Amino acid sequence: MNSEKYLNDIYKDFFGDYEQRKKELDKEEIINLDYDEEINKLFISDESKLMFKKIVNYIDNYTADKKYIPFNICIVSLTNSTVESIVKILKSVVNKSKYLSDTKETYLSLFKLEENIFDKVYKDNNIVVLKDINGLELESTTDKQKYMHSLEDNIENNKNISIITCSNENELNSLFSYNLDLKNKYFVFKLVEEKQDKSVLYNEILESTTADEELKIKLLDYISLTYDKSELDSETYKNNLINYILLNNDVPVIKEEKSIDEIFESLNELVGLSKVKKTLYDLVDLMKLKEKSDGTLKIGSVNLHMIFLGNPGTGKTTIARLLCGILYNLHYIKENKLIEVTSKDLIAEYVGQTAIKTNEVIKKAKGGVLFIDEAYMLGDKNNSYNDDAIGTLIAEMENNRDNLVVIFAGYTKEMQSFLNANSGIASRIGYTLTFDDYTTDELVAIFDGMMKKAGFEVLEEAHTELRRIIEENRNSENFGNARFVRNVYEKTIIKHASNTKNNKSKKVLKTITKKDISSENLIN
Question: What is the pLDDT of residue 523?
Fold first, then answer.
């Protein structure tokens, strides 16, 4: 017997011509408003919510007419917490409407069942949730059939809501293969589950932990980078992260390697930097040509030691990280590693130790990329040890061209003076990339990108306020371009969390307004 047809015959008023009703029926007509808000909080599709609202309405309507028709459900869901929420709502509906005489429920695992267990459970409870249905496979075929017929007798002879939970329909088919008639007495409610909004997830994790401001930002970054890629359901992801934070007072370390296509996708997503992007594309084309020619073209080795010129927050470190991944994918470097240092990490305090210290840094970077930020400090003639560091770098850059890429980065004006004073460095540079300051529009776009990754929506009034703050601070001595925007972003998230701490509305939690935009202590 066809399960859908059987149920349609019993519950004609509930199902009707379901496909036609989907098109014609206003959703509001079938909503029991008492439970609308609770159902809307579930992380399931609108279609699944609509079906659940119909189930709730069905139970409520039949009770109002003092009629009882059993409604047995198989819930197909990957998430235990979603099933538990649905059972909780059903219990509340049954209790309020008196659809059943009592509202006592139990969860029964089908692992290691006792003799006559269904008789006992269905007698003592009128909402019975059967879980771990694969456990029945441990029984003999005879016992499987015996248990399934006992289950059928109990749902026919008792006024209960019987719920079977499973993660996929194959489990159900296996269970019902031991009593095909039983299958026709259950309605299969297959949930289409959706992930929780990142902004809501973030706030819920904050409520369950005691994160300081630094950890709050690390948490938001972690969620932004990992949540969409995670195969875990929202509840499991959230609980795992909460437990990790409580145990370690930190977020997990993110380890990932991207393909060259993924790296270029990340590059293209960056705001601005058109000249830098073009240079990288041209460089990659040259390296691919050399690789494809297999030595038939007279192309010398590509000198990839570089200078990055630009003000703070113009993307120099970000591009260095992406470039490292590109070179690794093209097999130019052996390891996908970027060692980030400043001049202080190269210079020692005593005579004869600077060359040793610089060599130790270079040793760590071999096989990858050495990124020296604020490299112009090496040109400071007041420090006599700088020459030792520069001399060591020049020698290693020459001797390890196939096993090391060195990038010198710093402010445009200061770096130019440094290069003019150090012809040895300048002569070993293959590429010079200039990073222009971001326009106000670009900075607003960067802010929007950060918010979007974190799951927030930004109102136009907030954009207007952000533009005002950027223009007000742009000419400050320590204005940091994207760093400045990052600072606004971090402080805005914290301010928004404070502004919405007493609000549970998803829309409010994920919406950034003018009053959330922080303007305090933005320049260090």
Answer: 65
